[in-house]
Amino acid sequence: MNIEDLEWQSRTLGGISPRLATMLVERGEVELLVQAASERGEWFCAQAAARELSRVGEVERALDVLKPFIEAGWNRARWERAEVLVEAGRVQEALDAVRPDEEGLASEWVCHDFAELLAKAGRLDEAITVLAPHLDREWILSTLVELTQNQGRDEQVLELIAPRAQRARSVRGEERWGFRPSNAQDLQAQVLERAGRVDEAVQMLGADIADGRFVVQNTLIAYAELLRRHGRVEELRVLGTGERAGETLAYYARALEDDGQAGEAEAVLRRSITASEYPDRFRWPLIELLGRQGRIEEAVEVGRPTFDYHDACLFEGIIHLLHEAGRLDDALALLDERSAEFVEEHSSWFSSNRIWLLGEAGRHEEALAYAGTLPPDLYGLTVSKAWILDEMGRLEEALALLRADIELRPSDVAELLIRHGRAAEAIAGMPSLSEQHAASRRHDAAMQADRGPNDPPF
Fold first, then answer.
1. What are the boundaries of the region Disordered (predicted)?
2. Is the pTM of this model over 0.85?
3. d(CA 12, CA 433)
């Protein structure tokens, strides 16, 4: 077991990925996960196996799976072991095993993980104490709010948030750039709301928005969402038709629809599309509204003016709307209306979507024939063709196609095999972690050589 290989696996989701490990759990292949962890040093298999074994009460086996990784110095395994111990009720043993030292307490990442473990162990006061020095980081402040949900600590949390929210209200000009925590006002309103103090949350955040006393646009969106959740249509009308209509009108329209005024919601959106200097921001809310009413043709026409845009293009959204409505032939017709220039500029996206829609429509032979007209090195083509072959019941051809493409990850073959009940074969056919890591290094070196010594590594 090699730490560098494990770090590469964790960073790139290489080897047997979390997705594959989850598939194996779902199919009852826990013993195969245990074997892969033991014989191949696959971390995601060890993690998934330990969690599943813990879930069914096989605590000692779960700990045994993790032990070699801990002995190798893989820190994530120590934290996973602590999770298993907490689930087993061995709380003190778990906490003692990962309790941060002075250096650890200075790390927001370590404190985050330890606080989550403390909360799971029912030691919420200690969790809050651990998080407190790091609450000027947005994600740590969010963690505090999440961990205290329905725990009777709202007043304590509000006391911790209040000075940070007040600082956010007071920043001006260039001070806004990089201000932390920029989400303090949003979270203050969220905690007030969950504490049943909705009027106070609305009044406080509304005053901040009206006076421009906030740092980031997310605060504005949080206010609009708060109003919509509580049916505050009039406040949303003021917000959604004022100077911030571009960001909030959609929330006003949805609140009207929720209030049984779908016709007025539609009218508001159509007026904004007609009158606005930047109308396209209002098209998608109208498309969604029309889609919910089953008025698909009208939804398509609303999006059509954007189909050839480089930015704010709604074409992909319309394709998926038609797919969800079962209108596959209409989606294909829209694709085939695109110009040669559009197809050339979006070649991979266009071809993969066309093959996908043909496959969804059951037109498999047509999909394969179309795929045969495309450049063989087109990105994503191999996977699309393999999917079609699999849909046609031609599994071995699909597997051969995937195996022949050296640019694909081994996990593509493994996933297909697992879906067909051939999990052991899937794992046996995977190169080892060290082999995959070495191949990744060679690939990166080749890419860097192609770029040249003076080009940036991205």
1. 429-458
2. yes
3. 12
